[in-house]
TrEMBL record:
Residues 212-330 form the DNA mismatch repair protein S5 domain. Residues 480-615 form the MutL C-terminal dimerisation domain. Residues 396-409 have a biased composition (Basic and acidic residues). One of its GO terms (cellular component) is mismatch repair complex. It comes from Acerihabitans arboris. Belongs to the DNA mismatch repair MutL/HexB family. This is DNA mismatch repair protein MutL. Pfam families: DNA_mis_repair, HATPase_c_3, MutL_C. It comes from the Bacteria.
Length: 657
C-alpha cells in the first residue's frame, strides 16, 4: 500500500479516539474551553447520559462570527501562537483538537456571540463531510455547544458505552473535579431535564469550606487539615484528611497542577510517602490539593488526555510536596475546621509555644516590634512586625514556618532553609567563645550527660532554674531577644543574658538526629535511586561495615564496583549524596573497628549549613528542636554552646557619681 495523506475526516476520528473516550470526555473538553473563555457560570444539560445530547452553555467572551468555522477546524486555537507559548502553557486547552474531534463523531452545533456583536451566529458541522454551515441565531454574550447523537457514525464506539447510570456517574465526577478547581465559577448540571447538581461560586476564603463540603461531603471536611506552603515558585494549598481522627477515611483523592486535573505518579508517590507512617490497615490517603508551579517548569503536553505532567525539577517538587504534607499531618492535633453557619464565630487554632517564648503573638493583634538590641544581619529585616517577609516571631514560634519531617527521632531540616551543602573537611564555622575545633571532640563532649564542657569564662555558677523563678527555664534556653551577626543568638537565660552559637547548636543537633535509638534510623526511599562507582577499598568497607550502615538508615546495594543508593535517613535527604556516600565509605575503609556513634559523629562533621546570617525566626526554630531532642544541653549548657554575658563593666561605665 503506498504512503498517502489521511483524509481529514479519518484523521479527526483517529484524534477522537484519544480525545473522546466517552461522553464524560466531551463534557471535560467543552467545560475547559468555557473556563479558558473566562466564563463565571457554566450550565451543563445532559440527556441519556450524553448519548443523545450534551449541551454546555457559558457566559464567556464568545467567538467572533469570522472565526466560527475556523473554531471547528483541526489544530485551530487562540490559546497558543508560538513555540514559546507551548513551553509555558497557562490555559487548560492548547492543541485545538477538541471541537474538530467531537464534531467528527457527532452532530455539533456551536452558537456564540461576542460583546462587540449585536447578534449571535451559529455554526453547524456533521460527521462525514464535516462541512460547516453558519447562520444567525439568538444568544446572549457567551457560547453554547450542543453535541447530538454521540458516536452515531461509529457504531463500534457506541457499543462499548456502559449503562446510562454508569456513564452519567462519570459525567458527574468530571463536573465535580472541575468545580473543585474553580471555586469562583458557578456550575449547574441537569440530566434528562432534572437539576442534579448546583455548585454556587464563592469568592471569599471564609466560604471555601462550605463549597468543599458540597463537593466532597461533610465527612471529609470534618477531618480536613488545611495545607498552605510556599517555596520559591512552588506553592501548595488545599486540604488533607487527618488519618488519626478515627474510622475509615473517605475516598477522596484530587490533585491539581496549575488548576489542571491531574493523576500524576510523582505527586501520588510524594503524598503516599508522607502518609505512610500515619495510615493503618487498608486506609488510603484522602486529599484535595492544588499545586502551583511556574509554567516554564512543567510540561503538560506529555499525555493524550493531559492527565500527567513532567516537572523539570522532579525531585524538588516531590520533596516539596512530601515536606508540606508530613508537616501538616504532624501538626494534626489541632482542631479541624467544621462546617459552620455564618453566625457562629470562627475557630482559631494557635500552635503551642516554646516554654519561655512568651505570649503567642498570633493569638491576637500583632504588637509593634521592639527595636533590636544589636544591628540585625542583612536579610533579617524588620518592618512593622515583619521578619524577612513573614510575621515576627520574637514572642513566639511560628509552627507554620517549620517543616519537621520526622519518623521517631529523625528530624529533617526545615523546608525552605538553604541547609544541606557539603563542606570540605577542613572548613569550619567562625569560632565562637570556647569553640573547640578538634574533629569529633565537640560532639562527644556535648552528648555525655553529666560531663559538660566548660570554659574558664563561664566557670561562674549559672543561676539554677529554681532561682530563676520560672519552672519553664529548666527546659528552655529562654526568650530569643536578638541576633548578634552573623550567627549568635542573644537569649534571656535564667534571668541573665547569654550568647548561643547557632552553628554549634545546629551541628550538635544533626549529630543527635543521626544517632540511632533502639531499632536504628528508618530509611526514607529516594524517588530516583542514585548510582555511583566505587573503588576496591570502598567496596571492602561496605561489606565490612554493612550492619552499621543499615542501622543508620543508609540503604545501599553494591555489586562488584557499582553501588545503588535506595534510601537514607531524613537528616540526609537534602544532602549531596553523590559525594557524601563515597566519602563515608572512604572513611570506613581506613577503620577496622568503628562504632555507630563514631560514624554518626563523622557524618555530622561533614554536614554544613549554608546559613551565614541567621534570622530571628530561624534561631527560634533551631533552639526549639535542641530543647526538644537534647534537654540535657539546656540543663547544663556546655561552654562551646552557650556563654553568659558579664554586663558589670558596662554598668560601671554608665555610672556617673
Amino acid at each position: 500500500m503506498p504512503i498517502q495523506v489521511l483524509p481529514p475526516q479519518l484523521a479527526n476520528q483517529i484524534a477522537a479516539g484519544e480525545v473522546v473516550e466517552r461522553p464524560a470526555s466531551v463534557v471535560k473538553e467543552l467545560v475547559e474551553n468555557s473556563l479558558d473563555a473566562g466564563a463565571t457560570r457554566i450550565d451543563i444539560d445532559i440527556e441519556k447520559a450524553g448519548a443523545r445530547l450534551i449541551r454546555i452553555r457559558d457566559n464567556g467572551c464568545g467567538i467572533d462570527k469570522d472565526e466560527l468555522a475556523l473554531a471547528l477546524a483541526r489544530h485551530a486555537t487562540s490559546k497558543i501562537v508560538t513555540l514559546d507559548d507551548l513551553e509555558a502553557i497557562i490555559s487548560l486547552g492548547f492543541r485545538g483538537e477538541a471541537l474538530a474531534s467531537i464534531s467528527s463523531v457527532s452532530r455539533l452545533t456551536l452558537t456564540s456571540r461576542t460583546e462587540a456583536q449585536s447578534e449571535a451566529w451559529q455554526a453547524y458541522a456533521e460527521g462525514r463531510d464535516m462541512t460547516v454551515t453558519i447562520k444567525p441565531a439568538a444568544h446572549p454574550v457567551g457560547s453554547t455547544v450542543e453535541v447530538l447523537d454521540l458516536f452515531y457514525n461509529t457504531p463500534a464506539r457506541r457499543k462499548f458505552m456502559r449503562t446510562e447510570k454508569t456513564e452519567f456517574a462519570h459525567i458527574d465526577e468530571v463536573v465535580k473535579r472541575i468545580a473543585l478547581a474553580r471555586f469562583d465559577v458557578t456550575f449547574t448540571l441537569s440530566h434528562n431535564g432534572k437539576p442534579v447538581r448546583q455548585y454556587r461560586a464563592v469568592t471569599q476564603e471564609a466560604h471555601h469550606l462550605r463549597r468543599l463540603g458540597s463537593l466532597c461531603g461533610p465527612a471529609f471536611v470534618q477531618r480536613a487539615l488545611a495545607v498552605s506552603w510556599s517555596h520559591g515558585d512552588l506553592t501548595i494549598r488545599g486540604w488533607v484528611a487527618d488519618p488519626r481522627s478515627g474510622g475509615e477515611l473517605p475516598e477522596m483523592q484530587y490533585c491539581y497542577v496549575n488548576q489542571r486535573m491531574m493523576r500524576d505518579k510523582l505527586i501520588n508517590h510524594a503524598i503516599r510517602q508522607a502518609y505512610q507512617e500515619q495510615l493503618t490497615g487498608g486506609q488510603q490517603p484522602a486529599f484535595v490539593l492544588y499545586l502551583d508551579v511556574d509554567p516554564h517548569q512543567v510540561d503538560v503536553n506529555v499525555h493524550p488526555a493531559k492527565h500527567e505532567v513532567r516537572f523539570h525539577q522532579a525531585r524538588l517538587v516531590h520533596d516539596f510536596i512530601y515536606q508540606a504534607i508530613i508537616s501538616v499531618l504532624q501538626q494534626g492535633a489541632a482542631p479541624t475546621l467544621p462546617l459552620r453557619d455564618e453566625a457562629q464565630p470562627a475557630i482559631h487554632w494557635s500552635p503551642e509555644n516554646r516554654p519561655a517564648s512568651g505570649k503567642n503573638s498570633f493569638a491576637g493583634a500583632a504588637p509593634p516590634s521592639p527595636a533590636p538590641l544589636f544591628p540585625a544581619a542583612e536579610g533579617d529585616r524588620r518592618d512593622g512586625g515583619q521578619l524577612a517577609g513573614r510575621p515576627s516571631v520574637a514572642g513566639g514560634r511560628r509552627d507554620g514556618d517549620r517543616v519537621l519531617a520526622r519518623t521517631g527521632d529523625d528530624v529533617a531540616p526545615p523546608a525552605g532553609s538553604s541547609r544541606g551543602r557539603m563542606r570540605e573537611p577542613a572548613a569550619a564555622y567562625p569560632a565562637g567563645p570556647g569553640y573547640q575545633k578538634k574533629e569529633g571532640e565537640l560532639y562527644r563532649r556535648l552528648i555525655q550527660p553529666g560531663a559538660p564542657a566548660r570554659d574558664e569564662r563561664t566557670a561562674t555558677a549559672l543561676p539554677s532554674a529554681t532561682a530563676a523563678g520560672d519552672p519553664g527555664d529548666a527546659q528552655s534556653f529562654g526568650r530569643v531577644l536578638s541576633i548578634y551577626p552573623p550567627c549568635y543568638a542573644l537569649v534571656e537565660f535564667r534571668q541573665r543574658l547569654a550568647l548561643i552559637s547557632l552553628p554549634v547548636a545546629e551541628r550538635c543537633l544533626k549529630h543527635r538526629q543521626l544517632t540511632p535509638d533502639g531499632e536504628g534510623l528508618r530509611a526514607q526511599p529516594l524517588l530516583i535511586p542514585l548510582r555511583m562507582a566505587l573503588q576496591e577499598p570502598e567496596v571492602a568497607a561496605y561489606h565490612r561495615h554493612q550492619a552499621i550502615l543499615n542501622e543508620l538508615g543508609i540503604q545501599l546495594q553494591v555489586h562488584q564496583h557499582q553501588a545503588t543508593l535506595n534510601g537514607v535517613p531524613l537528616p540526609l535527604r537534602q544532602q549531596n549524596l553523590q559525594n557524601l556516600i563515597p566519602e563515608l565509605l572512604g572513611y570506613l575503609s581506613a577503620e577496622d573497628e568503628v562504632s555507630t556513634e563514631r560514624v554518626a559523629d563523622w557524618i555530622a562533621g561533614r554536614l554544613s549549613s549554608e546559613q551565614h546570617d541567621w534570622s530571628l525566626s530561624q534561631a527560634i526554630q533551631l533552639l526549639a528542636e535542641v530543647e526538644r531532642l537534647c534537654p540535657q544541653w539546656v540543663k547544663t549548657p556546655p561552654g562551646e554552646l552557650l556563654v553568659m554575658l558579664d554586663l558589670g563593666a558596662a554598668v560601671e561605665a554608665l555610672k556617673h557619681d
